[in-house]
Amino acid sequence: QVQLVESGGGSVQPGGSLRLSCVVSVDISTIDILGWYRQAPGKRFESVALLHKDGGREYADFVNGRFTISGDNAKDAIYLQMNNLQSEDTATYYCDAYYRRNGLGRTSRGQGIQVTVSS
Known about the structure:
Blueprint: E1 4-7, E2 10-12, E3 18-24, E4 33-39, E5 46-52, E6 57-59, E7 67-72, E8 77-82, E9 91-101, E10 104-109, E11 113-117
Parallel strand pairs: 2-11
Antiparallel strand pairs: 1-3, 3-8, 4-5, 4-9, 5-6, 7-8, 9-10, 9-11
């Protein structure tokens, strides 16, 4: 079972920045897709940014160029740099991994970390 641990959340004012980190318990080059998801109270669970094994990146439309997902193979970690944060970005953010083992697709998710954007 792959384990993921997020860090870097907190509270910022609108327009501020945060960098989320996620340490993965295995070599991230063996993970097919690493990503960040979020869920705000009363709202649906949604994808924020995905990093594919081949280096490809996907972002939700609401990111609109404000966030950047990256990975560090040496540290087995991924990051989410979030700039120009707005109140609607307030949510619990989760690091997620999709990988295949013995021909079966599996998913692991971190415990989540809170991001609050408020003046």
